[in-house]
Amino acid sequence: MADQLGLPHITWRLLRHWGATRMVEGHVPVKAAQERLGHSRPDILLKFYAHVLDASADAAAESLSGQLSGGMRAVEAAQNAAV
Q1: How far apart, in Å, do the first and last CA atoms of the chain sit?
Q2: Enclosing domain of residue 14
Q3: pLDDT at 35
């Protein structure tokens, strides 16, 4: 079917990994994703999809850093206005 649609070679394994990655990126609880995939333990899911979590951690750090920087600018502005 993929050939008829002009799609690249798609396997069940590829679809499984895509689905698991989407669950991790979508912040589905690890326990729920682990059960959906049929893994016996959550650490198996984390072991194979840690790269997705690493990217999410980087995004979270950047977001928090930006919020803290913005908050510090507001504090500095308030201090300058009081002077």
Answers
A1: 71
A2: 2-82
A3: 92
